[in-house]
Amino acid sequence: xxxxxxxxxxxxxxxxxxxxxxxxxxxxxxxxxxxxxxxxxxxxxxxxxxxxxxxxxxxxxxxxxxxxxxxxxxxxxxxxxxxxxxxxxxxxxxxxxxxxxxxxxxxxxxxxxxxxxxxxxxxxxxxxxxxxxxxxxxxxxxxxxxxxxxxxxxxxxxxxxxxxxxxxxxxxxxx
Length: 175
Fold this sequence. Notes:
Blueprint: H1 2-21, H2 67-75, H3 87-95, H4 104-109, E1 126-129, E2 136-140, E3 145-151, E4 154-159, E5 166-170
């Protein structure tokens, strides 16, 4: 009995300390929400694993916030896993955008640019797929290919049909 009361007392003190420290034990606060939501791409999300494209001829692009600058951003990070699961963040950074969307699907559904569901996306356009509750986004190369995260687990260059459930594209911009 004595040990039970001691255990309850210790638990009460720990709970009081955690509450005073603002740790909340399971309660969510606005500060805990990430800028972009993590979305892991699985093999089931890939339509054509053989759609990886060869390297393009590299050009000297030094101007940021352009279609060429956005593509160059991805080229410079080819093979990187640093943005894995954060495709919307990578797309935003490639254009140096100030506008944030929590996920690719939120970006697609937003009023931030007209949605296009036909035609070849122009160079630098945001290209969207509905492959999870968060969606997926990459940047068009203008020739039917895209630069994206989650290409064999890293940033890579693939045909637009690499991922399943294509939604469409929105013009790229640096707003």
